[in-house]
Amino acid sequence: MFEYEIEPRFNDTDALGHISNTAFPVWFEQARMPIFRLFHPSLDVESWPLILARVELDLKAQTYWGSPVTIRSGIGRVGTSSCEVIQEAWQNGREVARGRGVLIHFDYDSEQSIPIPDDVRARLAEHPVDSA
Amino acid sequence: MFEYEIEPRFNDTDALGHISNTAFPVWFEQARMPIFRLFHPSLDVESWPLILARVELDLKAQTYWGSPVTIRSGIGRVGTSSCEVIQEAWQNGREVARGRGVLIHFDYDSEQSIPIPDDVRARLAEHPVDSA
Amino acid sequence: MFEYEIEPRFNDTDALGHISNTAFPVWFEQARMPIFRLFHPSLDVESWPLILARVELDLKAQTYWGSPVTIRSGIGRVGTSSCEVIQEAWQNGREVARGRGVLIHFDYDSEQSIPIPDDVRARLAEHPVDSA
Amino acid sequence: MFEYEIEPRFNDTDALGHISNTAFPVWFEQARMPIFRLFHPSLDVESWPLILARVELDLKAQTYWGSPVTIRSGIGRVGTSSCEVIQEAWQNGREVARGRGVLIHFDYDSEQSIPIPDDVRARLAEHPVDSA
């Protein structure tokens, strides 16, 4: 699995005193960068070939500002033009959240999904995790 | 259903040129306020009795800065201490996203779920939607 | 002055319990839209002709989630290629923040400032405020 | 000077394609943590003794997602109850922004400023920078 360390920002907190639930989609997006790179090594936004179709997020424990969070990301099911990203967030040895995202290989000009090419498929296969 | 109008902020966009997927959890949270109020009329954060346990989000169409977004929110299944919130986001007559959140009636001091009282249950029953 | 009403979002709060100082630049940017439109009626980001060079922000009172905030914006000094935007934020009858931004009329391709044309200058002159 | 490395998040970008101006107050706040600690070693938000009264930000060059940003922070003028924080943001060897914040030593209960104690004053004096 890919590992990415997030430093929670004070701005990720909310008035309830802890990290806002809304921080996780931001963190998980950032932690998907190595996966975006498997599709699109340049990460150039002008030719970005992916769209996020679905997000699932389970919030399992309170998360605190002041300690780093490790995000682990891997690839679940891969379909014709879609790919499942499974992510876990850990803080102080405890799993605080779990996410599942569905990415579509996508052509923004025609607004249509496009099949995942074999070379990308091979790279995705190197980072498997069990589907959530 | 409760309706809440969101004015997308320029800051809700990202380098792909449109509204970021990460804006929806922020908007949906804000649009849940009338539902939070059914549980906790004062909305005082010191005695906040709810925790978000799960989020599901389907992104159905690109969303643009510059046009308002209407969020419709209603109550799906209600369990002993949990409650499902079903939300839709519409822009320019098109459904752009759909969300499902699971709220837990929660005591932050003991870190335990607590049953939803009957009066709250009665108020929730006035805003039903089909579960997603 | 231009008036823009902001609905503070729960996500604009932080762990100190009130609106984060970081929300004001976001709100002020959104409230500058009528001013951006004086320069660039389409608001098309592909041909955006402005860059923000400087921000000053005075935080005058605590700001709360749950009440709308009115942002008033007007034009201060106008130079050859720059323009000062003066902004005030009011909540519950109290001025909670004051901002001053310096916008540069800018060509992103050549990365150079460009003089403000006379027609824009005339439109800016219709929205004067005293410079901060 | 204190150094803090920020990893720009994709969510820090906006539709203009680069890092939003609104990211800098967020980054600078996070990078002030070692300074907050000089006042308040526990960083406990319940007894937080500081309020931000003023922010100045000069945006000097475009900032990009994909490369780390180093924030350098030091102490400028120190008054009876206020303290100036001078901050610089560097990316790829270039200064991209400069900030100046004014912190007030503050009692949130009485909503009044309080003099900076001598021990804090001594610790602040160990991190001087020229005032902006």
From TrEMBL, chains A, B, C, D:
Q: Which UniProt keywords apply?
A: Hydrolase
Name of a matching Pfam family: 4HBT_2
Q: Name one GO molecular function term.
A: hydrolase activity
UniProt-listed Gene3D superfamilies: Hotdog Thioesterase
Q: What's the name of the protein? A: Acyl-CoA thioester hydrolase
Species this chain originates from? Tamilnaduibacter salinus
Its lineage reads: Bacteria, Pseudomonadati, Pseudomonadota, Gammaproteobacteria, Pseudomonadales
